[in-house]
Amino acid sequence: MQNKLQINFFYVLLIGVAILLLFIFLPFFQSLFLGAMLSIISYPFYLKMVKPCFGSKNLAAGITTALLFFIIIIPVGILLYFLIGEGRDFYNYFANGGGSVALMDYVGRGQILLNRILPDNLVPETTLGDIQNYLNSIYGWAGSHFTSIFSNAISFLINLFIFLLSVFFFLRDGKKFKDLLVKLSPLNNAHDEKLLHTMALSVRSVVKGSLFVSIVQGLLTSIGFWIFGLQSPVLWGLITMVAALLPGIGAFFVIIPTAIYLYFSAGIWFAVGFFLWGSMVVIVTDNFLRPLLLERGIKIHPFLILLSVFGGFGLFGALGFLIGPIILSLFFALMEIHPEVISVNK
Fold first, then answer.
1. Which residue among 134, 224, 232, 297 sits deepest, i.e. has the most Cβ atoms within 10 Å of its Cβ?
2. How far apart are CA 167 and CA 49, in angstroms?
């Protein structure tokens, strides 16, 4: 009786401490998660750096972390600098009234065109007041979010520090963390190794096959905006990058409306030229670059990956595009080893 009481007390205490520890680590979840993802991607490079660094794991991990900082963080910082500037100019353009009038002009032209094609009274009439009301609601949303961005600057710096530390320690002690997970898991060691391998493969596949391709599409779309003299190329390139997470057709959500805008504002040849440029971007990246990067990736139907990306966005926020596919791939890995686990325990 005394032993059973001690065991129950131990498990209650263990669960309570684990829950408290979870709440302590929860504010740094995104930083730790990103650090783990980047360390998985860069781990092969880290291993190659150990020998030139005279066998010092600390030096190899430090150099790899510094390279990741210069390759990723600094370009992202430059991107945010231009993005904030373009966003401010874009906001002022519409807030001062000029954008509203221009938008009303394009909407009016579009209504005339649609009225020629579609039956009478099918296209609703839109006034300048209607557009201004829609824009005012957008202004309020944008203003509140920009304010929150600047007010969270200190939090961002703290999370950046945690992120860089996590990359360093995950690289240096990654094998120890992996061995600890295998040791704590009640599953067969071979099954644990398979699950961890699948998760690592999923991370590399999602980042290279989805995120990297989306970045390329966003960059090429920004170049297209610059070539055709369109405003805010960085802003629209970023929007294209997010839309391009939808394979095959995502970038067209930006390309087609922009081509229509060019048709009304600059003429048919500008519209056709931009559409051809955008189509080549999608065709080249989706048909050649994406399959090349996904060659050793996870073999899951693209529609399921798409659902996991959108569902991940809704559940986990910005990191959902990574977390969703990883959970999906983990589910399929569990289903794959399920018959082996059942047969072993019969």
1. 224
2. 15
> What is the per-residue pLDDT for 126?
54
Low-confidence ranges of the chain (pLDDT < 50): 123, 295
- Distance (Å, whole) CA 235 – CA 91: 12
What is each CA distance from 277 to 16, 148, 217, in whole angstroms?
58, 36, 11
Enumerate residues 6+ apart whose C-beta is below 8 A from 203: 37, 40, 41, 322, 326
Sign, CA dihedral 184-185-189-194, equals negative
Q: Quote the DSSP letter at residue 125.
A: P
The closest of 162, 167, 165 to 35, measured between CA atoms, is 167
Q: What are phi and psi for residue 116, nearest 5 degrees?
A: -70, -30
Instruction: Of 291, 93, 301, 336, give the one whose Cα is nearest residue 197.
Output: 336
324 contacts 312 by C-beta, under 8 angstroms: yes
Core vs surface per residue 256-283: b (16+ CB within 10 A) or e: eebbebbbbeeeeebbebbbebbeebbe
Q: How many helices (H) and strands (E) does the chain have?
A: 16, 0
Q: What is the rounded CA–CA span in Å between residue 210 and residue 257?
A: 23
Predicted pLDDT at 149? 52
Q: How far apart are CA 266 and CA 271, in angstroms?
A: 8
What pLDDT score does 168 carry? 93
Alpha-carbon distance 241 to 261, whole Å? 20
**Reduced to 3 states, what is the DSSP secondary structure of residue 346?**
coil
Q: Closest by alpha carbon to 75, among 186, 257, 241, 194? A: 241
What local confidence, expressed as pLDDT, does residue 272 receive?
84
- Residue 111 and residue 114: Cα distance in Å, rounded? 5
d(CA 284, CA 253): 17
Q: 3-class DSSP state for residue 239? A: helix
